[in-house]
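Milestone M4 deliverable, item 7.
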Amino acid sequence: MIYLDSAATTLEKPGAVPRATAWAMTHLASPGRGGHAPGMAAADLMYRMREQAARLFHMEDPEGVVLTSNATHGLNIAIRSLVKPGGTAVISGYEHNAVTRPLYAIPGVKVQVAAGPLFDPDGVYAAFEREVTPGVDAVICNHVSNVFGFIQPVERIAQLCRERGVPLIVDASQSAGTLHVDMEGWGAAFIAMPGHKGLYGPQGTGLLLCGTQAQPLLYGGTGSLSARQEMPGFLPDRLEAGTHNVCGAAGLLEGMRFVSRTGTARIHRYEQGLTRRLMDRLERAPGITVFRGSESCQSGLCSIVVEGMDCEEVGETLAKQGIAVRAGLHCAPLAHRSAGTQDTGTVRFSFSAFNRPEQVDRAAVVLHTLTNRIKY
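Output delivered:
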């Protein structure tokens, strides 16, 4: 199988990731729940995982790194901490349902969309300039669109938020591990990310980087201040109720070590090269629309529409040929409305550090064959 769906989950992992996950399952207990060796070893691993994340994402205090079950979990914490009933949030036109659904679940919230053209960072920034005003509870923006790979001008948006005194939440689901994510430099209130995508960790893991105080989403045991009925006031305990996913954290630590050794810039260049290779080949095929931006504003992801075919049909046809992609709306209908593809959806190809050029070429050949069969 040729797996080209890493924007959903990286399937091929560094070998150390599954080894660490399996080892933790039989060697580590629950951190903070005992003074015995397996419990103490688990606490040590959790701290090393936080330290690795703090180094990778330029965060001074590792205690502000919270283990979550995924990016959606972290975004819910961040949004609920900052956006109050009847408040106002400003979001980009390319947000995932992991942002929009939590917002619409808060009573009376006004959601203002800073809508800008696809692959136009200046236009997106100008839209945020218009929408971000004093009194806004929070700005929420993804670093990279999961549908089109559009790299949004997060650094400039972060500066705007600092100037106007509005807290910023960044969804780094498609950028953590491939682009520069800078907690201190951006001055973000929160940055949420999954562990199972560009960080090459197991599914069921994520991180929330906290630059401000957060409200718990879950309440329960933490192994600290057990005599009190209130959640601890300090991080990470305040946001980590219940038993930790220690096995996932062990794998995530190894995934982040792989990213650090390889280098995010190197991974980004490689994935971007595969994307450009695919786009160059597909643009020669009749009836294929390729959504392509400049190298400075598009990551390792390619979305297409095939004229005369439903995108789900294209995805199924590719799957039968042993090529795994994602087709549809990708849980981001707002992004499709912004780009004008809400009626068609797209077929998405996304890459990892483990894909190879010949896999790209094979996918292009299959698509060329497919379009040649279509009668226009």
